[in-house]
Amino acid sequence: MRKLAPNSKMSKSFAAIALSSSVVLAPLGPVTNVTKAESLSKAETILANLSPAQRQALEKLSTNDQSGLFLDSNVNLESSSKVSVIVQFKNKPQKAAVLEAAVKGESLSNEQAKANVELDHSTFKKDLAANFKTKSEGSFKIKRQYKDAFNGVALEVPANKVKDLLKSDAVQAIYSDSTVKVEEPTSEAQPSKEAQGQGMAAERSYLNIDKLHDEGYTGKGVKVAVLDTGVDYNHPDIKDAFKGGYDFVDNDNDPMETTYADWIKAGKPGGSTGAASYVTEHGTHVSGMIVGQGKNNSNYATTGIAPDADLYVYRVLGPGGSGTTENIIAAIDQAVADGMDVMNLSLGANYNDPLFPEAIAINNAVLSGVTAVVAAGNSGNGMYTVGSPGGAALALTVGASDVPSQIPTMKGHLDTANSDMRLLAKNFSDDISTLLSNTYDIVNIPGIGQASNYNNLNVTGKVVLVARGTSTINDKILQAKLKGAAAILIYNNNPDEGYLPYYLGEGTDFIPSFNLTNADGLALQQKITSGNTKFSFSDLGQLSTKGDNLADFSSRGPTRVNYEIKPEITAPGVSVLSTVPGFIHSPNDPTNYQYAYERMSGTSMATPFTTGVATLLKQANPDLQPEDIKSILMNTADSLSQPYSVFEEGAGRINPYNAIHSTIEIKVKESTPTIINGEVEQINIDTGALSFGNKAYNGSDLSDTRTVTLLNRGEKTKTFNIQVNYQSNIRGSKVAVANGVTVQAPTSVTLKGVSQKKLNIALNIPKTADKGIYEGYVVFTNKDNPIETYRIPFGVHYVEQGFQSLNLSRQSISTDRNNLSAPLYSPYLTANFTLKSHMRYIYAVLTDATTGEDLGISNAFDGVAYNEGVQYNIQPFMGYYYPFTTDSSSPFDNKPVKAKEGHYKMKLIGYDDNDKAFTIAQDLFVDNTMPNQFDVQVQGEKPGNPFIEYKPEQKTIPITASINDKIVDQMKAIGLKADQSQNYIGYYYNSFYLTGKLSLDENGKAKDEIAMQPNLSVLNVRFAGVDQATNFNGMKQYLFVKEGTPYVYGQANVATRLNQVNAQVGDKITVTLTANNLAKLQKANYNFTTSTLDTNIVNIALNPEAKKLGGQLNVTTTNLSSTTVKSNVDVTFDGTQDVSGDIPMVDVTIKIPELNDVYNYSSFYSVNSTFTSVDNVVTKPLTAIVPINILSNTSSVIGYIHPESFNNADGTLKYIDYTKLGANVTVVDSKGKKYTGTMDSRGQFTIGGLPVTKDAFTVVTDIPGHFTTYGKFDTAYNTIDGFIYGYKLRLGTETVDTATAGDINKDNVIDINDALAIETYWGTNKRSADINFDGTVDAKDFAYVEKNYLLQSTAVDNAPKPAKKYKGKTLADIKIELGIQ
């Protein structure tokens, strides 16, 4: 038996208790896991046919929404607020359409394809204008037109007009204009002004770029587009290469970066330190990597990969490096129109979807002949982290790796502690060899080396020792420099990591800085603490890093939907030195480019490196198409320094020299999905990888074949041996040979000069193979020259489809929102699930377990976030569901319904990337009934009295407890694993917060001991009993005091429940104030305050026991207000007897009066006691009164009205005095009786005096100029032990609907008659026609009639048919007569 004590392991929230006590989330009963191929359920049938807009609406239900295809989940399609959208038209752009037709064997001329695009645009403009005939309908703005890489427009339009756009014959799809950001550098700390040698020297040297330059491959004549934050085209290394571009942020021809001057002009957002997060430099860094010409008069001048290429920069990302889908697509479109050969996109969204709008535009650009090189993203190192548009099938997607580097090393000495140190950073002017000839004082800096940590420390000329943590490495070094330190030693705070994984190089903000392990740092710290402070340096050396390591930050594949190998290639992207704008390091003189360089890391850097190489390849062979460039770069790539999955490194690290000089190209014929005419269709592509995609187990052996084309552009005949190299145990990949999985290819192939040959490579998977990833490389080796090798990565994702598991955290949940404030109540059901195969969409559906009917959706989840084989936690149910309807155009009701008590199935229905449905379910009970039994017994307790006295030697006091819930029997009856231990008895050990729970046996019983706290005057321990559904039975409180402690307790003369009284209207209760452990009392005073609204003091009398001891009573009452009474009670003893021990002293009789509102407890709950002894010693003993709960005999409701004309965009009410609105709110009971109440100035109504019943009520809101609303509710009561009593119910929007504006004549329809009423009362203050209550009937009121014209109220069954004309007069006629434009 454990002991209840303050040092027990305490649960701080109910959620933690719920999870820890539910049999470790093991399956609680029969789990239904079904793959549905035939006989679809109602829910599956409805969900399978959802339109994109309907899926978008469902995503709003999700608690962890992410952006998806079509519209962002935050778009409110009922709002008149404007939103930015991307509208895709039916026809493909000209070049892509012609190519597509050719692939299909169809004939389509360039002229006709162009005409089709133009027709889409003209049709849409005409249809768009038709939707905005009047000013009251709002306005629109076509922000961009796309015709080359994407056919459509960027549009700003009221959200409530978006659905209407789909009616145009030109429109196929609409997407949200999403936010896209630059792929930010990832290093923990970057120097403000630093470099390590000449710009990109290490990368160019390691990969033979300089050698290619010497051979004449410099990119001359090739046009390169950079889509980024802009460029500082004045940079000496860039200006001669820069040829033009466009700024899609500011819509001009000047693609300059966001400058320091721009920040000042904008009002210095972020304050004095805000410039760093506002200005941009990324595009200049990227541009320098591609076309840097090394012309700057600086030791750090940067020569890029293709210095003679023509640079065109399209600024698509503005301040802070953020931009929109609209601008990205516009720039891709413009790059195609401008005849670019290669485009670089070091940007993206962290969302793995190859069918994102930007990805579609990228695919079309490639089909139009532009090589698109895109960053994979910096969200690694998890699988499936590749972003968008990096997931575009036709993009060349790039991951990041490093190159070898040389890092200076030294040894440090302090007494007997010797440290191996690596240089971390140094100033441009530092000569670290001078450190060898001196001995320095060393100072340990407390904390983490922030400025405040140097207070009262003199470190001038000394070496400082600092721990890594929180602040950046840069700041630690800078603070040491500012304080005058000669050098800084920074040791790792992570003992498992070794050295810090950084090398910052040179910078103006640096001093000699060294990198130490955790062990060496702590050893030095210990020496300093013991008084050793003389530090010296020795053994200057150099450490060479190996290089060719995949960067940890580099995003991994595969892509969703098609499971293609992404990234296709890796390139240097770690600590790359390149150009930045002059204002970055010289804001006051942006023309100073001496130190206009920085070292950055990211796939953003690997991408321009690859773009540069692609540019050289295009120069070397201008006839190469994008698929050729991709394939050649992949064919010739080298392995990294250690094995990586093909879904991490693709074909490997780029080898520019081999790529340029290769005469061999190996292409794989693949098919991949893209959007054509608004539908997902497969297109054929050539690439450099064997992506066999996602293969589903079907009970049979599987096979798949790809056609591989080998091209020999050289004169010499070559024979290649072909070998399949399997990889296993890399990121979970399986052992192919052991599982019988094979990739079969010919053993050799001979290619004559200037020829091509096709061969087949087949994948075979036996049905017995383990599920998972199978991968490797097909390697082609020149028989006569084994150094010449080419390789093609292959990969397949073999899965068993469906869900693996679903575990609900509990088998029952309460939907009784009247208990929200009850201890331990939780309205949320949590669960975990695991997928066998990926699901694109996942829906939580509530099903009636008795009838099998699918009732509705309770939540929706974006499947992109969920990987197979990983357990995820979700909230599938929160008590409400959105009912299915029989209307296919509106398949689910937007108004949630609260689930009633009963037996249900909680289903998860998933749809995979091919829209195949899978289902898994568990039983769930909605239980709104409290446990039928709960009690706690403490050794020594007296009936109805919470006080327990304990002896000084008592360390603990035993307790027993029990709880029972009848629903357990129902669970057992259907085969669920259930017993009474699933209930909870929580305890609050001298705390307002829950501190633990008792351990229950299968019968719901518990034994334990409570630890006493003799240092406390009173130990307060409370116990709460709830069932698994978290229905609250009650709370029992105990007050533990040391034996002999004086205290007063007011005990009732009626039966108690858990030491509390439950009283009803009319009940009389006498509470006896008993003084305990008295010693020679002379006088006692009691005073208390009560409210006549809930409690009447009937009588205050001297208890007979006190009277026997010579007590005399004096009572004084004071009316503090019309409803508040203060009672002062004096009991004086005549001294004839010793007044000691336990004395019942005063009997207070109260009565619960008729109530004018719902009151939960009596105001007689607190008494102040003062005792005076015969020795005139005054004490104030602890005093407690039995809690008296009031079970009201009436109920009330409170809520807000929601007239449309007074609603803000967020659903809140505008600020007016609603008491003058003329609104009436009525509640009607089941017998037709009406109840009215009051309205306050904020629009909140209160209606009381409702009968206590389980029958339904109707709340009616009648607001001038609006539809009358009717809402049902049936929970205006509460229950205890089966007895129902009054409750004050708050009505929300689930009950009180928004009242649609425009119904002037209150006939439940908005038609010509309402317009006529506006005309009749035009210019007056007629209340019924002054919809917006501004004192005048005018065009603002008419706008509501026009907006909701011809609507019928759905709240009534007999709304008349709306009239469009009156005596030939139409709405348009009335507008003309009123002069409304």
From TrEMBL:
<keyword id="KW-0378">Hydrolase</keyword>
<dbReference type="InterPro" id="IPR037045">
    <property type="entry name" value="S8pro/Inhibitor_I9_sf"/>
</dbReference>
<comment type="similarity">
    <text>Belongs to the peptidase S8 family.</text>
</comment>
<keyword id="KW-0732">Signal</keyword>
<dbReference type="InterPro" id="IPR015500">
    <property type="entry name" value="Peptidase_S8_subtilisin-rel"/>
</dbReference>
<dbReference type="InterPro" id="IPR003137">
    <property type="entry name" value="PA_domain"/>
</dbReference>
<dbReference type="InterPro" id="IPR000209">
    <property type="entry name" value="Peptidase_S8/S53_dom"/>
</dbReference>
<dbReference type="InterPro" id="IPR016134">
    <property type="entry name" value="Dockerin_dom"/>
</dbReference>
<feature type="active site" description="Charge relay system">
    <location>
        <position position="282"/>
    </location>
</feature>
<keyword id="KW-0964">Secreted</keyword>
<feature type="signal peptide">
    <location>
        <begin position="1"/>
        <end position="26"/>
    </location>
</feature>
<dbReference type="InterPro" id="IPR023828">
    <property type="entry name" value="Peptidase_S8_Ser-AS"/>
</dbReference>
<dbReference type="InterPro" id="IPR002105">
    <property type="entry name" value="Dockerin_1_rpt"/>
</dbReference>
<dbReference type="InterPro" id="IPR036439">
    <property type="entry name" value="Dockerin_dom_sf"/>
</dbReference>
<dbReference type="InterPro" id="IPR036852">
    <property type="entry name" value="Peptidase_S8/S53_dom_sf"/>
</dbReference>
<protein>
    <recommendedName>
        <fullName>Dockerin domain-containing protein</fullName>
    </recommendedName>
</protein>
<feature type="active site" description="Charge relay system">
    <location>
        <position position="604"/>
    </location>
</feature>
<dbReference type="InterPro" id="IPR022398">
    <property type="entry name" value="Peptidase_S8_His-AS"/>
</dbReference>
<dbReference type="InterPro" id="IPR034213">
    <property type="entry name" value="S8_Vpr-like"/>
</dbReference>
<dbReference type="Pfam" id="PF05922">
    <property type="entry name" value="Inhibitor_I9"/>
</dbReference>
<feature type="domain" description="Dockerin">
    <location>
        <begin position="1297"/>
        <end position="1361"/>
    </location>
</feature>
<dbReference type="InterPro" id="IPR013783">
    <property type="entry name" value="Ig-like_fold"/>
</dbReference>
<feature type="active site" description="Charge relay system">
    <location>
        <position position="228"/>
    </location>
</feature>
<dbReference type="Pfam" id="PF02225">
    <property type="entry name" value="PA"/>
</dbReference>
<keyword id="KW-0134">Cell wall</keyword>
<dbReference type="InterPro" id="IPR023827">
    <property type="entry name" value="Peptidase_S8_Asp-AS"/>
</dbReference>
<keyword id="KW-0645">Protease</keyword>
<keyword id="KW-0720">Serine protease</keyword>
<dbReference type="InterPro" id="IPR050131">
    <property type="entry name" value="Peptidase_S8_subtilisin-like"/>
</dbReference>
<dbReference type="Pfam" id="PF00404">
    <property type="entry name" value="Dockerin_1"/>
</dbReference>
<dbReference type="InterPro" id="IPR046450">
    <property type="entry name" value="PA_dom_sf"/>
</dbReference>
<dbReference type="InterPro" id="IPR010259">
    <property type="entry name" value="S8pro/Inhibitor_I9"/>
</dbReference>
<dbReference type="Pfam" id="PF00082">
    <property type="entry name" value="Peptidase_S8"/>
</dbReference>
